[in-house]
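Why does residue order matter? Because the sequence determines the fold. Keep that principle in mind as you read this record.
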Amino acid sequence: SGCEPEEVHARREAARKASQILGVASVTQLDFPDNQLDTVPLLAVVKAVEEVADRIQPDLVYTHHGGDLNVDHRICHQAVLTAFRAIPGQTALTLLGFEVCSSTEWAYEAFPRFIPQRYVDIEKALEAKMDALAAYSMEMRAFPHARSLESVRALAVWRGASVGRTAAEAFTIIRDIQIPNVETRG
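Structure:
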């Protein structure tokens, strides 16, 4: 997957540990090359996402923002949009794009900008998020890098302050289908 076997194992273990800290029920890790998804046919990535989607049948899907500088993030975004295209029987009613420190803000004007449309209060979950990121330390950098623990916390505080909260995460709305609970009269 683009990395040495030891590094792949370490990344998988870090992801497992971070997921455990966050209370994630199950994790599926696909075997694609790191920072090289542009060498894989998009259809292969879409089919892999569709297989997971068929098994899980989610009604809410989070994916990378489509304007990220990281090529893997952009391809993942495109594959998720394709796998969860709005066709009859599709279970995913809501698709949200998230930002990634040191990828979303670095794209500048080359790709679509991240413009938050939905905010989620994470005040009570912020410390667990920080612990999970610490468990995934191989991806973190020293401050003042945008992908440092301090920068992630600062972004959460900024996103929170933007909407009058202590801490928040921000998302773009890709699709949000509302099904009203309406009783019919007859």
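Residues 5-22 form the longest helix (18 residues).
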